Amino acid sequence: MQMYDLIYKKRNGGELTREEINYFIQGYTAGTIPDYQVSALMMAIYFQGMTGQETADLTMAMVNSGELINLEQIPGTKVDKHSTGGVGDKTTLVLAPLVASAGVPVAKMSGRGLGHTGGTIDKLESIPGFNVNLQPEAFIKQVREIGIALMAQTGIIAPADKKLYALRDVTATVDSIPLIASSVTSKKIASGADAILLDVKCGSGAFMKTRQEASALAKAMVAIGKMVNRRMVAVVTDMGQPLGYAVGNALEVKEALATLKGEGPADLRELCLTLGSHMLVLGEVGQDTASARDRLEDLLKQGKALQKFHQLIEAQGGDASVIDDPDKLPEASFKCSVTSPEEGFIAEIDTMLVGRAAMLLGAGRASKDDLIDHAAGIVLTKKPGDFVKKGEELAVLHTNREDALDAVAELAAPAFKITSDSPEKPQLILETIGW
Ligand code: URA
Questions:
Q1: CATH code (residue 284)
Q2: pLDDT at position 435, please?
Q3: Which residue has its alpha carbon closest to ligand 1 atom 5?
């Protein structure tokens, strides 16, 4: 088999066979096929697309490029959750202990933030002492003992995806639906999940800017699940504004703790209850989403999800006293308000801009080896639909980089679009694509 022939075939709109896909993934992982040929193939796929069968074959080829985590020693249906990434998305911090408190085993590997989006692992590391680098045996043991463990994804999972993603990032081939769908699902399947709940973000802070694109990605991932026999449900959700009010690692942990205590923002709570009810059904501990949601609401009210989070922090070496005393989390030395230049209603928030501003304050990484400042970020004071007077506060910037404050305040202010008419409230849950 020759790589040239695969590129030629795909360029002309042909369908690659499973053997051809395995050939290029194995060769690329082993280093016997060069970047320039794989780049050409990625670009051909970008323009010609892939059939459902090709996408499923690509997914499984990437799964098999590394090690598979075997979660069979953990009783029950293991349900994983993945978000395609957004701004202020601290859902996992609430959802994981919540569904674990309902009896769904949570053995979850998560990633770090890059660019304008955050990552669960960075958020957890803002809790003093929290260890995200577990060995697979310790990870499995902890799930068996307390029903939950969260660890950083290791390089042994789908290494072909890691290499391909880095190549796509520099060849303008990230935003291809079959390539994103196979990339996301390969990592989840290799992590040992029996069933997967996908939160597909849509809007100004997401990869997928339009409802149509988000819906197509959600359908492509659920179709992969059907072909490779993993139950998947995808929920398309709004990322046209940050989720909750806090953006930045320790700030988001504080907001997640408030939500676990029943005091958090309405949108975050609603998203966790919606996603959680699907996870209970996928995990076969709930009959239907309505009764599962009632159960999750009870668990939140009884403080069971908060107790589970306490157990998780202690088991992974963290300082669980942050639960009662969130002021023990890292706190920035400098704070500055962004104020409204005019009176009116907040019509929209440019979420990508808020994410970029938080990154410049130190909350995120411009490139993968950058260090982050756990205390940095932005807390919104106003959300779409709210009324503001001229000079009223829109958000507060938190940073340890005093020299960045003025420039970031100038960058962040135009993120708030103000109109004289009261805007319609955006819908949070846009579509559900089921198994
Ligand atoms: N996230 C991933 O994991 N893969 C992609 O291709 C895009 C976003």
A1: 3.40.1030.10
A2: 66
A3: 180
Q: Please, how many CA atoms are within 13 Å of residue 170, restricted to the half-sphere of its CB?
A: 8
Mean pLDDT for the stretch of residues 129-154: 93
Each residue of 25-37: pLDDT tens digit? 999 999 999 999 9
Q: In what order do the strands lie in the sheet with 387-388?
A: 387-388, 344-349, 416-419
Q: Is residue 138 part of a domain?
A: yes
139 with 315: CB under 8 angstroms? no
| 232 shares its domain with 98 | yes
Locate 88 and state its tokens.
């202020």
The pLDDT tens digits for 165-205 are: 889 988 889 889 999 999 999 999 999 989 999 999 999 99
The candidate with the shortest Cα–Cα distance to 354, out of 102, 157, 87, 122, is 87
- Of the candidates 79, 70, 142, the one whose C-alpha atom is nearest the C-alpha of residue 317 is 142
Q: Do the beta carbons of residue 157 and residue 63 sit within 8 Å?
A: no
**Is 168 an active-site residue?**
yes
Is residue 380 domain-shared with residue 405, that is, in the same domain?
Answer: yes
Answer yes or no: do 253 and 340 share one domain.
Answer: no
Residue 92 lies in a domain: yes
Are 115 and 85 in a shared domain?
yes
Which of the listed residues 325, 350, 376 is the one where a domain comes to its end?
325
- Is 80 exceeded by the pLDDT of residue 232? yes
Per-residue pLDDT, averaged over 276-288, amounts to: 95
Looking at the CA of residue 179, tell me the nearest atom of ligand 1: 6
Instruction: Provide the pLDDT confidence category of residue 153 given band limits of 50, 70 and 90.
Output: confident
Atom 6, ligand 1: residue with shortest CA distance: 180
Task: Tell me the CA distances in angstroms from 410 to 187, 342, 365, 366, 413, one per residue in order.
Answer: 39, 15, 20, 19, 6
Residues 285 and 312 in one domain: yes
CB contact set of 23 (below 8 Å; sequence gap of 6+):
1, 3, 6
Q: What percent of the chain has pLDDT over 70?
A: 100
Q: Which of 81, 121, 184, 198 to mutate to test the pocket of ligand 1 (most atoms within 8 A of CB)?
A: 184
pTM: 0.94
